[in-house]
Amino acid sequence: MENDNRSATETAAKDEAEVTGSLRSTGNRDPGSRFGGLEAAVEASIASSIGTQLGDITAPYPVTASELGILSNDRTPEALAKLLEKGVKTYAGDDGKDTKASYEDPEKVSPQQKLLRDVEQLVAKIRQLGEKGEGHDDEAGGHKEMDMAANVLTSVLLRSSPESGIDPREVEIRREVFGTNALSEKKLTSFLQLCWEASHDFVLCMLMVLGTISIVVEATTHEGPCNTCWIEGAAILFSVCIVILVTAGIDYAKQFAFIRLSKSLHESNTKSVIRDGKQISVTDDDIVVGDILSVNSHNLASIPADCVLLGPASDLKMNESSLTGESHLISKQPGDVILSGTNAAQGSGKMVVIAVGVNSVSGKIKARVYETGDHEDELGGEGENSPLYVKLDDIAKKIGLGGTFAASIAFIVSCIIGLGVEGDSVSNLVDYLVTAITVLAVAVPEGLPLAVTLSLAFSSNKMMSEQNLVKHLEACETMGCATTICTDKTGTLTANKMTARALYSGKVNYAVDDPAVTLGSYVMSHQGGLGKPVLDLICQCISINSMNETVLYFDNNGKELSSSGNPTELALLHVVHELGQSAEFDKIWPHLRVLARSSPDDKLTLAHGLNQSNLFADKEVCKRLLAEDGIRIFPDRQVVAMTGDGTNDAPALKRADIGFAMGIAGTQIAKDAADIILIDDNFASIVTAAKWGRNVYASIQKFLQFQLTVNIAAVITALVGAFTYQISPLAAIQLLWVNLLMDSLASLALASEPPLESLLQKPPVNRTDSMITNHMLANMLGQAAYQVIVVMVLLFKGPDIFDGMEAGHILYEDDINSVHYTLIFNSFVWMQLFNEINCRNLKGEFNVFSGLFNNPLFYGIWITTAVLQALIVEFGSIAFKVADDGLELKYWIVSMVLGLGAFPVYQIIHLFFRLFQKKSRASK
Questions:
Q1: What spans are recorded as compositionally biased (Basic and acidic residues) (predicted)?
Q2: What confidence tens digit (pLDDT) does each residue in 277-304 have?
Q3: Which CATH number characterizes residue 316's domain?
Q4: Are residues 740 and 668 in the same domain?
Q5: Is residue 819 part of a domain?
Q6: Which domain holds residue 691?
Q7: Does 424 participate in catalysis according to the annotation?
Q8: pTM higher than 0.85, yes or no?
């Protein structure tokens, strides 16, 4: 027991000595060396009193999160003085109450009493300076008082240390007491809410109403037992439910995709903090109150929490425009509050975190935005104002007007002809109305928004696997239009890695000419007059002159894992490692020469039509250009991409059509301003982005080519049926299957088409070009004409061609599902399925099957759709109004042959198209 007590006492004494030493700062400096007079007394009293709570990480903190929050909001010397006065009294407790006795009998002064007495004097002096309006004026001496106040705040109230930081064991406790820096995620929209929103679509609402009316009318007007009369209306409602569920499911999945993207961005935002005397990297979300951060304009451009600046600071100036709107830089001195969300523009310093998460200034703003729901995802939605959406919106409006006109004509003609002959039948009127609304549903490209969303999401996911982190989905398609890339050189075209290429020692010059050979390996193989003692001395000199900020990490096999610090110093550290040593260094060995490793321009390969402009090279004219000035050089018709890694690049990244920031070398403010982050800092990844951007346009065009062909053929078929027999040969539920369900599957299949390398050999997409090219128009009109001809032949001549087949319109009057109309439906669907394969090609390529089996998702969906069609025809007689016994084998063969006819029609169309093009060129 005695040994245990002695051991505990010794441990406490050791801990107290360590803390006292750390508070006096590194180098065993005397407390009076940094401050004088009152300040030295305060520092000494801190050192003598702080050890009383050592070892007890559960001891209450003398300050609360709300009190620290007041300092963040007020940000005046008076607010800091009040916080110190109250906090130190709380810290001193009963030991600090009798401060009068401490003046009368210095021998009886406790550490807490001395601290409280000294802090009271410090607070009085700060208030005196504040009343005079002198504040931080160096001549008035306010700088020292505020510096000391920040030191008291850090060491006493927050139980931290400017040199050693916090105890890692306290991290979770601090998170519980002062809050977490991770803001609560924006509340996800529930699946039911998304279903409710999807059900508000006008066409779907009309179909739901008419489906319900159909059930009621058929049940009340049907002669005899009504066992199946409700089926068609129920099938319409079921189809609408499927569409709503699919739409809501896609939107629900999209929310999780944005969460994953947000998580990736947060994980890439790391900061260096000091804990237990060691500098470690943590994510923004892991930062807690009391953490010590080193701030400068490069490695901590974006401040992750509210902080107080500690001394000494080197001309630190902050850009607070993101919070205040003021563009001028704000000079900061020790004791000043630095707000989260602001940016370090110049200078450097060290600061202590005082408020995180919702307790910080920017956190409170974000929390209010989330609560009110007035929030636009900073991770980009679909970009409703992007060129692609503008074009598609224009197409959808025109198609909608055409569909409305066709539906109105179908309904009016059916009523005039049908009701005039058969009398005022409520049941027939409902049938005509259902047919008209179905024509409208077919005409409107319901699958188009789905295709766009899927294509953008698919591209962004694939780009992530190829080292492109897409922050805004619309950046994918905008990159497909990019015509010019503005780039700086260092860190973008070059690796921003310095390499030692020569060593001069003992009148011997070791110079490496071959870039594939490292200096260390060259010296080891050509030592000559350099013996091991000399090499060891070189390594020792580098080691002795070292700092902790520059370090290389290697695994057991000698492979470099990571590095941090000055690039020039890292080059020397590589030499030390190659010479078989392991050390950290600070200053350059004076006889080493370093050269930047650059990428020759002739090795840069860009996509066709995508120009690289090195505006910010080391040329006299360009040296004087600000980064954003480079964007102004290009005319408005250009779509400009900008790459950058520095804080000074941020305005240009924001102004450019697409901004690329370096993921490794880039500053946080550059990443915040960018649309896409190059995770591996590889300039070649921009070509990957261009390829996927162009593929987004190609995928949408493929789906448009397929969807509009279906729409044209189906609308004409429905109109002809309405004009001749007052009914469409394709029942309403069949048209819904073709348009709403099958097209949704087609949008997924075509959106997942991988980009072809040939896309890079073509010029970028012009913003003013139509989404529908001449090739596409020729294929759509040709295929639609073929399908309409086939359907018309089967409709009017089918019973004559196939012996024993009864006309469908006659059996329809007797409420019998005919083989005639089932054959038309089956043939129509198979023509769409085979044409879907054709639609993978936009330029009339001869081999329509090229690359088909490189996309398992496409042929998997195609096979699934084909199987579903077969099941519908054979077993869906009641729900889908097909023949009760399905189709005979001969009718299946006819349907398949007619469907396969889409392939030769495709070749004929493009043969004539090419001949027409040749004649046009010849005539010019």
A1: 1-17, 91-108
A2: 888 888 888 899 999 988 776 555 578 8
A3: 2.70.150.10
A4: yes
A5: yes
A6: 190-270+380-494+601-767
A7: no
A8: no
